[in-house]
Amino acid sequence: MEEMLNQEQQITPETPLAEQSFEVPGEYKDKGWAEKIKSSDDLFKAYDNAQSLIGKRPAGIPSQDATDTEWDSFYKAMGRPDEPSYNFTDPEGLPEGFDTADFKETASQILHKAGLTQRQADAVYSAYLQSEIAAAEKEGEATAERQTALDAQYDALTAEHFGDDAAKYEELTQQEFSKHVPQSLKETFAKITDMPDVLTALMSYTKGKQGEIDQIRKEYTGEGSLTSGGQAATSGINETRQELAKLKTSAIAKDFTHPEHKATRERILQLQGAVQSYYKT
Predict the structure, then answer these.
(1) Sequence spans of domains, the chain
(2) Do 228 and 220 meet the contact criterion of CB atoms below 8 Å apart?
(3) pTM for this one?
(4) Pick from 104, 218, 203, 100: which is nearest to 160 by CA?
(5) What own/partner pairs with CB < 8 Å and gap ≥ 24 does 47-54 have?
(6) Would you write out the chain's pLDDT as a tens digit for each of its 281 residues?
(7) How far apart are CA 215 and CA 222, in angstroms?
């Protein structure tokens, strides 16, 4: 009974009911921010203060529309070097002989402008370079696979059309290309080596031309031919040139619809080859 009277004496009319019953929950009592919370009024004040801070820019950070001078001052305070010069650490796995000097110079300019410290810049540089190495390795693997597929396609096509003579006609095609194509266009040959079907088509053309040349040589050598020398040779070349001139100016040679046009054109090519062979001998 006496204990109850003592408790009633501690509660006075001046003490608000909320404060008489307020207690910080046990799981928060050891939190630093809870030390000053002694009443519900303190709790609401702390909550109101926290809400007012949400969305506010931390002290010292320039606004987005701040001047370059303000940003430079901030970056300097945060530890950015005075000059765009960082000590970058090259990651492991760089290709042998890979020169990073130019890359480092560019990275220094960009990362300094972004306001990065030495530690931040080095981390970005290393991560970016590693990603570039990985991308290059992946591209290299893809290129190797593509080249293997092209080589297989080329081997199959040349085997189908030329058999064991594939190397012969490949070499002849390269010689003809080098001989007749202007220097300014010779880089084209490097491009068509990645086009097995185009290269095979050119080799087929070379094979056809070589067959015509072989036939002409067979017809005009050894049998009172153009290359036998003396009167017979001179007479033969004159007759050949006369026939060639006649056919080239004929109506049949100019009329693509004439049934004998193709045969006439083939004969013209034979005669031209014969004349060329004569003067080369």
Answers:
(1) 2-53, 229-281
(2) no
(3) 0.44
(4) 203
(5) none
(6) 455 445 544 545 555 544 457 787 877 777 777 777 777 787 777 776 666 655 555 556 777 788 888 888 888 888 899 999 899 988 887 878 888 888 899 999 999 998 999 999 999 999 998 888 888 889 889 988 988 898 899 899 989 998 988 888 888 888 888 888 888 887 777 777 788 898 899 889 888 888 777 776 666 554 444 444 444 444 467 787 788 888 878 888 777 777 787 888 888 888 887 777 766 55
(7) 13
